[in-house]
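Consider this:
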Amino acid sequence: MSTGEHTGVTEFVHHLVRWLRRLMPPGQRLDRLIADLEAAFAGRPELLTAADCHAVESLAQVHTRHLELHFDADATADPDTRSHGWPPVDPEQVRARAAGVREVRRLADGTFALTLDTLDPVEFASPYMEAAFALARGAQRLVLDLRGNGGGDPATLALIAEHLLGDDAQALSEVIYRDRRRQWWTRTRPAGSAVTQDLAVLVSSQTYSSAEALAYHLQARGRAVIVGETTRGAADHVTPVQLTGQVVGLLPEATVIDAVTGANWEGSGVIPDVACTAAEAWDVALARSV
């Protein structure tokens, strides 16, 4: 039976495993993931359902929190034979949401607050980030709210980090793919242009992916106090794959290693310095003595 048609549960898991072997860096984590999937879903010829996809996803997320499976019973798409990467974003949609800049505030006490809901591609997000950080100059302290941020472009992450980590270029991370490695750095900025005020970063259990990376990198360098809830723990880079006619997967293709800690937040999440509920995080951050 073709994976372009309705697919049995075991057949689907075998197909998923083949993709994971193609995409993920080799190692014990991949081996354990595959062993668990094959053991749990052996002998299941019945047709795959949304509930089955959820069960496969839940087991896989024990090993890689970013793996997602999206099932549409009415879809008839052709399965991918290779990874095409992320589709381009619609610039009009990016402009409509101001590249994820939901709110910028200067409070009467001198606090600058920036709420970011996503990290859109840097070529579109850069003007919004530059404008937001221009408003941070002269503030008494900074609050970066990532409680609802689902992640996005690592290049936008690096752009934000360079505004906050100082004028000199700094290594952020190394991303390890199956067949290559890539380093992410901040760029050197004009002298005195980075913002240096006390910084609190607000996070929640909904802070995800590259938004977690931003909080983690800032915390690891002692640049920010993290306030709120432990984040979701999704450190892998993922790519979309049409697995069957009915299932799109977000599959891990790379592991992130922070340049300072030599580790990441996969599975554990970013652990706040000041723990509180997401709803309390704003008030708790403002109550901190600076």
About this structure: The radius of gyration is 21 Å. The mean pLDDT is 96. The helical segments are 9-23, 28-40, 50-60, 91-96, 122-134, 154-164, 210-220, 281-287. The CA atoms of residues 242 and 248 lie 4 Å apart.
